[in-house]
Amino acid sequence: MTTKLEQVEQLLGTLSSGEKSQLLKWIVNELGDWTPGIESRADICGGEPCVVRTRIPVWVLEQARRLGTTEAGLLAAYPTLRAEDLTNAWAYVRAHGPEIDQQIHENEAA
To answer: Are both 92 and 61 inside the same structural domain?
Structure first.
């Protein structure tokens, strides 16, 4: 029994370069503004975007950064974080600034 990925791999071998290019465009479009290392799941932190493998919301990291916490300070405060996680979080903040601003505002008001 072949998996879907194995079927796709077999199909790729039959596509022309132009068809592969079109497929790649579709995949990129489907991913949209996906940021690696960040996920939003309804069962974790109420669906707020978090660093994978943790329950640390991106807005918490961004708010700490705005308040002057250094990356070294964040890594010390959250031992499960890696430098790569912070890079992913900052990329998410750049791509979703208004969303993060709103989450910070909502959590400050609470």
So the answer is: yes
Residue ranges in the chain whose pLDDT is less than 50: none
* Alpha carbons 40 and 46: distance in angstroms, whole number: 9
* Residue 18, SS3 per DSSP: helix
Q: How far is CA 56 from CA 24, 35, 39, 77, in A?
A: 32, 15, 11, 11
Amino acid type, 94: R
**What's the predicted TM-score (pTM) here?**
0.70
Q: What is the domain extent for residue 25?
A: 1-32
The total of structural domains in the chain comes to: 2
Alpha-carbon separation of residue 8 from 14, 15, 23 (angstroms): 10, 11, 11
